[in-house]
Design brief:
- The complex is a heterodimer of chains A (453) and B (95).
- Chain A has 453 residues and is an alpha/beta fold.
- Chain A is built from 15 helices and 14 strands.
- The longest helix of chain A is centred in the middle third of the chain and has 30 residues.
- Chain B has one domain: 2-Layer Sandwich (Alpha-Beta Plaits).
- Chain B has four helices and four strands, in the order βαββααβα.
- The radius of gyration of chain B is 14 Å and the shape is globular.
- Chain B starts with 7 loop residues before the first strand and ends with a helix.
- The relative contact order of chain B is 0.28.
- Classes of the chains: A alpha/beta (453), B alpha+beta (95).
- At the A-B interface, helix 1, helix 3 and helix 9 of A face strand 1, strand 2, strand 3, helix 2 and strand 4 of B.
Chain lengths: 453, 95
């Protein structure tokens, strides 16, 4: 088949001027065969398995990036939720396990390793509780380890005891890592209905139904979508959806090629393409700016949720055409700290926590990278998580919370995380208490939608 | 997979217009036994832009190593020279 000059130029323009990239190649590794009652042997087992299976991950990704001329930003690993392989370990043991994971990540030259996780949506084993208790220290003393906790699903309901514990854990993690702007919290996600094949951090883990080793790819490209829309200033909303769809198609195809090449060369199964629009702090690489291009003056103005719903759906439609294996969280991410448009909207007072919560009803994730005052009460954090979990549970979708009570800061301040995580304005939280609700504990029953059989 | 595994590589050259760009790029290709199949050149938004489709069947090495021969020229003339396997274009724009 002949190559058309126009197509070549379009690809080059997308990469050179519009920040097209493959956001991440993530290798999922099962650690089930590493279980051992002696924590030292367990640590050795997981270190060996991870460093063997992913030995060539970085080199292969580097080489593919050079061959096809599209940058691959992150190389990552997701592992079986550690609490699922743990055998009667103490919290101190779990901190040591996190250190081992960190060492493995550093040895391999990969950016993040995700799966310091526990799935406790229906109840907690003592082991899972120990893992959660170890989080404040484990995520402070390690650099590249990410964790997640599943506290609710549509089928199980919402585990309020777990949410209460997680609220306290987040505040403790913030305090523990106050010398680094409470960064430990940025590496922890609390989930409702977590996807088991999500390649994006901090919520990546290698779920139950997954093969031994798998390659999942996360594609992004808000910049490309934004530029495409700018070429149609007078299009109606139906046409706008179409433009987004076509753009998402092309981005996803690039991701599929990378995923298949990487899987083939690494001797792993090819898993899914996560066709999320995930922003970065690069100029123009912003989901908020897309919403503003669609037509709201500032992200957060009335109409923002509608614009986001249109965009999210169009991305999925375009992606579904392009690959048969769309998965993960596919849709739009709306983190605050990683998106220049979102940061600006918060600073202008146009975007509040409650508007963000409303927006999460129609997009793929939830409250992501939200910085709040350091003196926020654990029960208030638990209340925010419970609200988000309820949205996910009732709407049969994934929702997540990555919230950072930044020690020593108050509403209106600006916190700098540096690197990929960017900077975030401290957002105001409600001054009214959620303590009684959280203290009641127990489990919010699964909704009637759970009975789908 | 529907990958072509072909020998074709797309070379794109972008930079300030100046004399001798085509001559120097093609000289390197001839020296390395690379055959030019198609060549098109234009001035886009004030920049010299050239796209070539080449056949690397007789070149002894991979895209990475071929790219290194263009590095000195990129610096000398202030150009951006990019080599990409044809698969990415076929895959991205066509089903």
């Amino acid at each position: 088949m002949g190559l058309a000059l126009q197509e070549i130029m379009e690809t080059i323009r997308m990469v050179e001027m519009e920040n097209l990239d493959i956001r991440t190649v993530t290798m999922g590794i099962s650690l089930k065969d590493c279980a051992h009652p002696d924590v030292n042997i367990f640590k050795k087992n997981i270190y060996n398995k991870i460093t063997t299976k992913a030995a060539d991950l970085k080199d292969v990704a580097d080489k593919i990036q050079r061959e096809i001329g599209i940058p691959i930003i992150n190389r990552r690993i997701s592992i079986t939720p550690i609490a699922n392989v743990g055998v009667k370990y103490s919290s101190a043991d779990y901190v040591e396990i996190a250190k081992t994971l960190d060492e493995a990540a550093k040895k391999l030259g990969i950016d993040f390793i995700g799966g310091f996780s526990a799935l406790v949506h229906k109840g907690m084993t003592p082991d899972e509780q120990n893992l959660i208790l170890s989080i404040p220290e484990a995520l402070t003393v390690t650099e590249r380890v990410c964790g997640s906790i599943s506290v609710a699903t549509t089928k199980a309901g919402i585990n309020m005891d777990a949410i209460s514990l997680v609220g306290e854990t987040i505040v403790k993690a913030a305090d523990n890592s106050k010398h680094i702007n409470s960064l430990a919290c940025a590496k922890l996600v609390v989930f409702c209905n977590p996807p088991e094949d999500n390649p994006f951090m901090a919520g990546a883990f290698h779920g139950e139904g997954e093969p031994d080793v798998v390659i999942n790819v996360g594609v992004s490209g808000p910049g490309v979508v934004l530029h495409a829309l700018k070429r149609y200033p007078d299009a109606d909303l139906g046409e706008i959806a179409n433009v987004i769809k076509k753009t998402a198609f092309k981005i996803t195809r690039a991701g599929e090629l990378v995923g298949r090449l990487a899987a083939e060369r690494l001797g792993a199964q090819f898993g899914i393409i996560d066709l999320s629009l995930a922003p970065t702090n690069a100029t123009g690489d912003s989901v908020a700016e897309i919403l503003e291009e669609i037509g709201v003056e500032v992200c957060g103005a009335p109409g923002t949720t509608a614009a986001l719903a249109l965009m999210n759906d169009a991305v999925k439609k375009g992606g579904a055409m392009a690959t048969s294996y769309a998965g993960g969280l596919s849709g739009a991410f709306i983190p605050v700290s990683e998106d220049n448009g979102m940061i600006a909207a918060v600073e202008k007072g146009a975007l509040s926590l409650s508007k963000l919560e409303a927006m999460t009803c129609v997009c793929s994730v939830g409250l992501d990278m939200i910085a709040v005052p350091g003196d926020t009460h654990p029960a208030t954090i638990a209340g925010v998580i419970a609200d988000e979990a309820a949205i996910g549970m009732i709407n049969k979708k994934t929702t997540a919370v990555r919230i950072i009570p930044v020690a020593g800061m108050k509403a209106g301040d600006m916190v700098e995380f540096g690197g990929l995580l960017g900077r975030a304005p401290i957002m105001e939280v409600s001054q009214y208490s959620s303590e009684k609700l959280v203290r009641r504990g127990g489990r919010i029953p699964a909704p009637i939608q759970a009975l789908t059989n | 997979m529907e990958q072509t595994k072909g020998n074709r590589v797309v070379i794109s050259v972008v930079g300030q217009d100046q004399k001798g760009i085509i001559a120097k790029v093609t000289a390197i290709l001839a020296d390395k036994n690379v055959n030019i199949l198609d060549i098109s050149q234009t001035i886009m938004q004030g920049f010299f832009t050239m796209v070539m489709v080449v056949d690397v069947k007789d070149y002894n090495g991979d895209i990475d190593s071929l790219a290194t021969y263009f590095k000195p020229l990129e610096e000398e003339m202030g150009l951006k020279i990019r080599l990409q396997h044809e698969d990415i274009f076929n895959f991205m724009h066509r089903i």
